[in-house]
Amino acid sequence: MVADHSPPIAYPVGVEPGVVRLGAAAKSWRAVVVLALTVLFCAGSLVGDDHWWPFSPWRMFSTSQAATGSVISTGIEVQTADAPDTWVSAPLTPENTGLNRAEIEGRIPQIEADPARLGTLARSHAELRPDAPEWTALRVVRRQIVVVDRKPTGEVRTQVVAQWEAR
């Protein structure tokens, strides 16, 4: 091993080796960013909604359901050429319809205004499941499962949101 005979580095008084000190401008803009983020997070928590994310909590994770009330579940029911007078629940999945439940729930106002949009789900189902019976009618249903003290009572209220029939 070779000994290092170079003279020691002389640092100004109050400066430690390897430590970087920020100037006033660097400290100022960092403080402004922290303050702005703090204001956004506080405002989002107080008055924000899901559209404010990431500056507000998502409602589904930041709220709870009442102990007594109802839980809402959206689904679809179909009639097929094999059983034209019988409504049967069908999975609302990408494998079955090309869309998932959340995509349908997000479009409920448009579907209510134009139920013919549900024909797209029937056509998608026919393409995705060519061997399955053809859907001749489809309806979106909203089920309210009644709960008391966080326990289901067995009562389920069903509301038809929109309905489509092939012509």
What does the model show?
- A four-stranded antiparallel sheet has the order 2-1-3-4.
- The mean pLDDT is about 85.
- It is about 30% helix and about 25% strand.
- The chain folds into two domains: about 25-60; about 70-165, no CATH class.
- The N and C termini lie far apart (about 90 Å).
- The relative contact order is 0.13.
- The chain has about 170 residues and is of the alpha+beta class.
Helix content: 25-40%
What overall form do the CA principal axes indicate?
elongated
Strand content: 25-35%
Distance between the termini: 92 Å
Largest sheet: 4 strands, antiparallel
Overview in brief:
The chain crosses the membrane at residues 29-48. With 167 residues, this protein is α+β, with helices and mostly antiparallel strands.
What's the layout of helices and strands?
Layout: H1 24-47, H2 59-62, E1 69-80, E2 88-90, H3 94-97, H4 101-105, H5 108-113, H6 118-128, E3 135-148, E4 151-165
Antiparallel strand pairs: 1-2, 1-3, 3-4
Transmembrane segments: 29-48
Keywords: Membrane, Transmembrane, Transmembrane helix
